DNA sequence: TCCCAGGCCTCGG
DNA sequence: CCGAGGCATGGG
């Protein structure tokens, strides 16, 4: 064995659930070369994590026994807290705790999913475990093309986030709500962020920094609809952003961004139609996805890359 | 130049 | 409740 210099038993392994393929998920993670929150290299993904004041860079890969391996890079061994945090983070990120077999069963009888699901077998809804990051990504992505959204996110992260260095590269931690709450619209203008979006970001940062919006609060809702109402009451968060966040961060399987233009385009292309589906057509399609709207949406999005 | 992007808010009917 | 207009900018 050719061991590297990190000798502090700093690997956590997680058995993969059924209907999971690491490569398929890595393929989704690779969709933008402009992504700044992690780096793909060969068959692994590297990312900075922070737990309390402690930071780490981890490399997530798949070992030969169908386990996910989280290896801590760097010379200082992670604390027990950090190890536990990293495992929970990766479980959430890659959705390792969800049994999706009933989604796959449902897909077999669906005119759209019947063909799509086998193409991307083992793909999970990739999460954005941090609430502030998820809301920001939603707001940033409103109304602009995805390429520009990635650019805006990168500028925001590199201007106000924290770099964790490893082997000459910077692994970025997302800007904190506290830092963002202290910014002004003028601070964000040089990033080419619109004034309106800057207001939204700063406002939601303030809510989260003050503890007036938390994941616990949303998870304690009676259901997806009530959680959606909590979110859409916030300026800058409409139905699309709310459902996007509920899907990617809170992991409501029935979250459904029905207004999403990407979803509309995916359906149009798959059905070889001239026009995008009407709202009524979308509702009709989604009736069969009940309880799994988020997964259905994510798989349909996947067809676009 | 024009239109579309992983929308949302405001305002007038 | 519903539709139109404005927002800012990049990319095809």
UniProtKB/TrEMBL annotation:
<protein>
    <recommendedName>
        <fullName>DNA-3-methyladenine glycosylase II</fullName>
        <ecNumber>3.2.2.21</ecNumber>
    </recommendedName>
</protein>
<dbReference type="GO" id="GO:0008725">
    <property type="term" value="F:DNA-3-methyladenine glycosylase activity"/>
</dbReference>
<feature type="domain" description="HhH-GPD">
    <location>
        <begin position="140"/>
        <end position="305"/>
    </location>
</feature>
<dbReference type="InterPro" id="IPR037046">
    <property type="entry name" value="AlkA_N_sf"/>
</dbReference>
<keyword id="KW-0378">Hydrolase</keyword>
<keyword id="KW-0227">DNA damage</keyword>
<dbReference type="GO" id="GO:0005737">
    <property type="term" value="C:cytoplasm"/>
</dbReference>
<dbReference type="GO" id="GO:0006285">
    <property type="term" value="P:base-excision repair, AP site formation"/>
</dbReference>
<dbReference type="GO" id="GO:0032993">
    <property type="term" value="C:protein-DNA complex"/>
</dbReference>
<dbReference type="InterPro" id="IPR000035">
    <property type="entry name" value="Alkylbase_DNA_glycsylse_CS"/>
</dbReference>
<dbReference type="GO" id="GO:0008534">
    <property type="term" value="F:oxidized purine nucleobase lesion DNA N-glycosylase activity"/>
</dbReference>
<dbReference type="InterPro" id="IPR011257">
    <property type="entry name" value="DNA_glycosylase"/>
</dbReference>
<comment type="similarity">
    <text>Belongs to the alkylbase DNA glycosidase AlkA family.</text>
</comment>
<dbReference type="GO" id="GO:0006289">
    <property type="term" value="P:nucleotide-excision repair"/>
</dbReference>
<dbReference type="Pfam" id="PF07934">
    <property type="entry name" value="OGG_N"/>
</dbReference>
<keyword id="KW-0234">DNA repair</keyword>
<feature type="domain" description="DNA-3-methyladenine glycosylase AlkA N-terminal">
    <location>
        <begin position="11"/>
        <end position="130"/>
    </location>
</feature>
<dbReference type="InterPro" id="IPR003265">
    <property type="entry name" value="HhH-GPD_domain"/>
</dbReference>
<dbReference type="GO" id="GO:0043916">
    <property type="term" value="F:DNA-7-methylguanine glycosylase activity"/>
</dbReference>
<dbReference type="InterPro" id="IPR010316">
    <property type="entry name" value="AlkA_N"/>
</dbReference>
<dbReference type="GO" id="GO:0032131">
    <property type="term" value="F:alkylated DNA binding"/>
</dbReference>
<dbReference type="InterPro" id="IPR012904">
    <property type="entry name" value="OGG_N"/>
</dbReference>
<dbReference type="Pfam" id="PF00730">
    <property type="entry name" value="HhH-GPD"/>
</dbReference>
<dbReference type="InterPro" id="IPR023170">
    <property type="entry name" value="HhH_base_excis_C"/>
</dbReference>
<dbReference type="GO" id="GO:0006307">
    <property type="term" value="P:DNA alkylation repair"/>
</dbReference>
<dbReference type="InterPro" id="IPR051912">
    <property type="entry name" value="Alkylbase_DNA_Glycosylase/TA"/>
</dbReference>
């Amino acid at each position: 064995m050719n061991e590297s210099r990190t000798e502090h038993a700093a690997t956590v392994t997680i058995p993969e659930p059924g209907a999971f393929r690491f490569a398929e998920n890595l393929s989704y993670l690779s969709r933008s070369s402009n992504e700044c929150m992690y780096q793909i290299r060969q068959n692994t993904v590297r990312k900075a994590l922070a737990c309390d004041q402690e930071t780490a860079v981890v490399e997530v890969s798949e070992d030969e026994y169908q386990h996910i391996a989280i290896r801590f890079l760097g010379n200082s061994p992670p604390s027990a807290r950090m190890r536990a945090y990293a495992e929970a983070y990766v479980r959430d990120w890659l959705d390792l705790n969800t049994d999706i077999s009933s989604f796959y069963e449902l897909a077999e009888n669906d005119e759209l999913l019947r063909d799509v699901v086998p193409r991307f077998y083992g793909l999970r809804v990739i999460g954005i475990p941090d609430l502030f990051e998820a809301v920001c990504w939603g707001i940033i992505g409103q109304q602009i093309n995805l390429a520009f959204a990635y650019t805006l996110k990168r500028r925001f992260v590199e201007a106000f986030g924290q770099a964790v260095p490893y082997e000459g590269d910077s692994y970025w931690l997302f800007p904190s709500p506290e830092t963002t709450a202290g910014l002004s619209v003028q601070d964000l203008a040089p990033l080419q962020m619109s004034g309106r979006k800057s207001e939204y970001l700063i406002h939601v940062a303030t809510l989260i920094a003050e503890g007036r919006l938390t994941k616990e609060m949303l998870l304690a809702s009676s259901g997806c609809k009530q959680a959606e109402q909590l979110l859409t009451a916030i300026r800058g968060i409409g139905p699309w952003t709310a459902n996007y966040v509920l899907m990617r961060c809170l992991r409501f399987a029935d979250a459904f961004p029905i207004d999403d233009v990407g979803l509309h385009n995916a359906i149009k292309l798959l059905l070889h139609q001239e026009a995008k589906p009407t709202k009524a057509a979308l509702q009709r399609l989604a009736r069969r996805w009940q309880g799994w709207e988020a997964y259905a949406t994510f798989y349909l999005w996947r067809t676009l890359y």
